[in-house]
Amino acid sequence: MGGKLLALAGAGLLAACAADSLEHPSYWWRATVVSVERASELPPGVDRTCVEDHPNNALPDERPVIIVMYRVGKAPVTKAYVEAKGDRWLAGDSAVVHPTTCRIKRAPA
Q1: Which helix (H) or strand (E) segment is 11 a member of?
Q2: What is the structure's pLDDT at 75?
Q3: How many domains, the chain?
Q4: HEC states along 33-54?
Q5: What is the reported pLDDT for 8?
Q6: Range of the domain at 74
Q7: Residue 73: what pLDDT?
Q8: Is 22 inside a domain boundary?
Q9: Helices (H), ranges, 44-86
Q10: pLDDT tens for the chain, residues 1 to 109
Q11: Would residue 62 count as lying in a domain?
């Protein structure tokens, strides 16, 4: 019984550490907003993963989508993120993006 409790406690601690590590600043990449478009008007070559996998998958095509560019090594990545309600982004804004959780937020000053 004690072994099971210890294993459960260890698994819970590991999950908590994994969640905290995803929030670590090293997982957030600096990006520059290239443009803000309608979801239906995304240019070719833009990674749409975060738009298509958005929790509210019934996104209207008119909802603003932020197109950002960042670098992974020397390779540029252009990816679309869903704009949060009430948040307004403009081309040239600085952002930090989380490539796996599809979150975007304003870059710290």
Answers
A1: helix 2-23
A2: 83
A3: 1
A4: EEEEEEHHHCCCCCECHHHHCC
A5: 41
A6: 27-106
A7: 79
A8: no
A9: 49-52
A10: 555 544 444 444 444 444 445 555 568 889 999 999 887 888 888 988 888 776 655 555 667 888 899 887 788 889 988 877 777 899 999 999 987 888 889 988 7
A11: yes
Residue 9 falls inside a structural domain:
no
Q: Identify residue 97 by its one-letter amino acid code.
A: V
21-30 core/surface letters (b: 16 or more CB in 10 A; e: else): eeeeeeebbe
Instruction: Spell out the residues 6+ positions from residue 60 whose beta carbon is closer than 8 angstroms to its own.
Output: 39
Q: How much is the pLDDT for 42?
A: 85
Let me know: does 101 contact 71? Beta carbons within 8 Å: no
* pLDDT for 9: 45
In 3D, which of 46, 84, 40, 36 has the Cα closest to residue 61?
A: 40
The Cβ of residue 31 has, within 10 Å, a number of other Cβ atoms equal to 24
CATH code, domain carrying 42: 2.40.50
Residue 16 lies in a domain: no
Are 97 and 29 within 8 A, CB to CB? yes
